[in-house]
Write a structure and sequence with these properties.
The complex is a heterodimer of chains A (264) and B (489). Chain A is an alpha/beta fold. Chain A contains nine helices and ten strands. Chain B is 30% helix and 29% strand. Chain B starts with 13 loop residues before the first strand and ends with a strand. The chains are: A alpha/beta (264), B alpha+beta (489). Chains A and B meet through helix 3, strand 3, helix 5, strand 4 and helix 6 of A and helix 14, strand 10, strand 12, strand 14 and strand 15 of B.
Amino acid sequence: MNESLALIARLKRIATTGMPTQGDGRADDAWLTQGMAKAQLHEVFATIDDSASGAGFAVASVLAAKAAPVMWLRTEASERQGGRLHATGLVEMGLDVSSLVLGLVDDEASLLRAAADAARCHGLGTLLIESWGRAPGIDLTATRRLMLAAEASGVTILSLRIGAEPVPSAAASRWRVAACSSRPLEADAPGKPAFDIELLRRRGGQAGLRWRVEWDRDAYIFDQTAFETAFASGDSAALPGAGISVAADRAAADDAAASVRRTG
Amino acid sequence: MRPHLFVGRAETPIAFVETVSGGVRLKALDREAVRAGLQPGLTLADARARVPELEVYEHDAHADHEWLERLADGCQRYTPSVALDEPDGLILDIAGCVHEFEGERRLAADLEERLARRGLLVRHAFGDTPDTARALARFAGAPAPDEKRAVKRLPVAALGLDEDATTALSRAGLKTVGDVMARPLATIAARFGEEAAMMIRRLDGSVKGPIVARRTVPKIGVERRFAEPIARTEYALEMLAELATEAAVQLADRHEGGRRWEARLFRADGLVQRLRIETGQPTRDVALLMRLFRERIDSLADPLDPGFGYDLVRLDVALTEKLDASQLKLEGGEAQKGEVAQLVDQLGTRLGRARVRRFSARDSHIPEQAELMLPAAETPAPTPWTAPETGEPPLRPIYLFDPPQPIESMMAEVPDGPPHRFRWRRTVHDVAHSEGPERIAGEWWRRQDIPTRDYYRIEDRRGRRFWIFRHGLYSEMEAPRWYLHGVFA
């Protein structure tokens, strides 16, 4: 009841000002050192092949934002399909697993229900909702509810959507994550976790930005300088320079029509 | 469980049959069928010939057991200590429990009346020990003025020995339990077995067989009885809240909080509905408990059905832990922790305790066994995790496949190189960087024949990082298989 009243009030506000909530005033690359904006809902998209990168990026963002404790909700199906969470691996990402609670649910409906409960829990720092596949239940209404709950409780909500395409949602920001070749260590060993990050959409901010970053577990930041130096020497396969808008037209279209058409 | 068969039906004889080697035989009979002269063990064909109107049903031992369990649950309104006497008996330890009923006869009458409403025919007996009560209830002897003599007048069958021993006793001229008791125990033991002597000692009361109660007596139990059964679940829950308040007061006196709670709603017709909840932290917070109980009711497959109404509501605290008043005054970080604990309880009640988990390190170097997931409600002591080394990339994946997924390796270096390319999930991956092998031997002190695993951290050309292993050395086997065990961020 309160929830729907709040929703109505919010819709009224949007109707009168004609604008969604203003941007949070953060710099475009604030996330590199501070993680995602707190008390908001953010979406992280990754393909099934990049599931670990998506999850790794989500965990790293939690750490950069210092937003523990974490409740991680996932379905039994993702446990089977994507493998189970490996605590040692999470520890090696830098997470203190004693601040992590894992909740396994049957299906999408109970995922959303559990998420609604967890989103209201002030004691949490981050709620991580992992879904596999299209997950049609996580729609505009569901994300609006989560966003409202996040704003009310102060919990940062990360919706990790593996194998899904973006659909209209009320999330404050939307990211796409893919694996990216690491800087190899001595003896040709794979290096630190590296991500290819694209900011698909951000409320009241610039979208279509791309970064190539490395997760620095010891400093708890995403490091982009590593790649600047590595690829400055003109690697043609490398992405355009960090922080440069590579798809301004797409970003504009994305922003304007976010709530009516499929994006991405 | 087919109680409808027995309630208010016409007087057709009924038999339950089971298929054994050699045909279909009668297993159990109702009173009419016995009156018609049938006996268990008869073949169905013979029985049909004698009693053509016989109604026949398949015997279902499992359903019988379930039914007996449900009746036993219902009998816990009289005493917490109820034991099953398979296949069709219940033993109640009513010592100290009869005050509610002004005597044991009133209690037995109440029980018989309730069961009669379900169409059950009951025979009961009282005894000083479970064995005498059981023998007296199951076997009929000549009337006697007191329990001791009644036991003595029971037929030898009441000793519960096998058929051969029973026949042997009868042949020896020992017709009643009293006859057997009159002989020296040593002779009985020598001729009819140690078991016969043991039963004699149990029936004369010199050895007391234990009641194997189905549940332990809870530390704290509070209950409310109603003269008029209450038909509204909502009202029953209000009563439950009152009981929770009473229990909380008792707990506070003992400086304790409850971790495991069980509410039981006894229906007037003798059945019982139970609601169990568990909390991660000891608590005596009534509002929290009621929220969890409601959560539990919501998660029931069938909604609560009051039937003819509840006439007894009981709340037991099965597990308590120390909880001092000072512990309740949570501050700052502690309050935060408390909220997460409440969330864990709430989700655990709905999803099942085992599905809300925390990680705990376990002492094994086999990767899939090195960690254990515990129900989060069990709040393990924080276990130390090996801190990762500064500057190193993660050496373990964040998603682990259990069991490991087989991959098709192409062009691996012999004897200890990683593959140059491999196929997983129908996609070919070209290996760009690799590190290894990290050799993890099987736990040879447990089993000898477990092959060694050589693990490699590899990255393909698209930047995806995997953890793969070769199961066995080339020196151990001819063509060891490759597996993908996990994926790195």
